[in-house]
Structures are given as C-alpha cells and as structure tokens.
C-alpha cells in the first residue's frame, strides 16, 4: 500500500484567534497521516524505535491554499512518493470535500539513538515498495 486517507475533525484548540487552523497544526495532521499509512501497511513506529531506528523529518515543503476552520471535517491523503536507501518522501493533500486546502511534501530520514544516519530498514522498503 502506498496511499492512505483518514478523516479528522478540526478541534477548537487547533485554530487561531481568526478561527483558522494554525499553520503549524498541518504538520501534526501530516504525522497522523504518515503513522496511519504505516499502520495500514502492517508496520508500527514503536517497533522501529524499540529497534533503535528513529524516523525524523528533514524537509517540509508546504503550500497552504485555503484555511480549514473549527469543526470542519478534513481528509488527510498520504502517499509514498519515493523511497531510497536513505530517505522516504511522502506527499500529502488535505481536503475539505472537493476543496484542496493544503499540498505538501515531507522528506524523512532514519537515524540511530546517537543521531547517526541509517539506511531505511528493509521492512519499510518492503512495505512501501512498488
């Protein structure tokens, strides 16, 4: 599986004084999408962390098109764009109905507990492979 979608309802604490979802919360939505995609593929970040493999964000490219607001139901679509020995690239689209609110690309790397770069684990390569 290389794609996954999940619906979320915007909570009151995620909006700013103008009533719009604060831009920083979209990164949290991406994390939810990424975690649920891995879970749908039969994986679990907890297992990787127990093995000493930590997944970290190294780059975010985000385009905010329209704001989400309190109590909106949004869909977070997560797709694996590319996996190499050194990185995993996810693409995201957040929508409200037919409206695209946000498009983003997030690049991840795997490190050990000392912060040293590691190869993407074979289990992830297998789960996210073509």
UniProtKB/TrEMBL annotation:
Native source organism of the sequence: Novipirellula artificiosorum
Protein name per the record: Acyl-CoA thioester hydrolase YbgC
EC number in record: 3.1.2.-
SUPFAM superfamilies linked to this entry: Thioesterase/thiol ester dehydrase-isomerase
NCBIfam families, sorted: YbgC/FadM family acyl-CoA thioesterase
Keyword Hydrolase carried by entry: yes
InterPro entries noted in UniProt: 4-hydroxybenzoyl-CoA_TE, HotDog_dom_sf, YbgC/YbaW
Taxonomic placement: Bacteria, Pseudomonadati, Planctomycetota, Planctomycetia, Pirellulales
Family membership: Belongs to the 4-hydroxybenzoyl-CoA thioesterase family.
Pfam entry (one): 4HBT_2
Domain of life assignment: Bacteria
PANTHER family per the UniProt record, alphabetical: 4-HYDROXYBENZOYL-COA THIOESTERASE FAMILY MEMBER, NOVEL THIOESTERASE SUPERFAMILY DOMAIN AND SAPOSIN A-TYPE DOMAIN CONTAINING PROTEIN (0610012H03RIK)
Keyword Acetylation assigned: no
Keywords: Hydrolase
Gene3D superfamilies associated with the record: Hotdog Thioesterase (3.10.129.10)
An annotated Gene Ontology molecular function: fatty acyl-CoA hydrolase activity
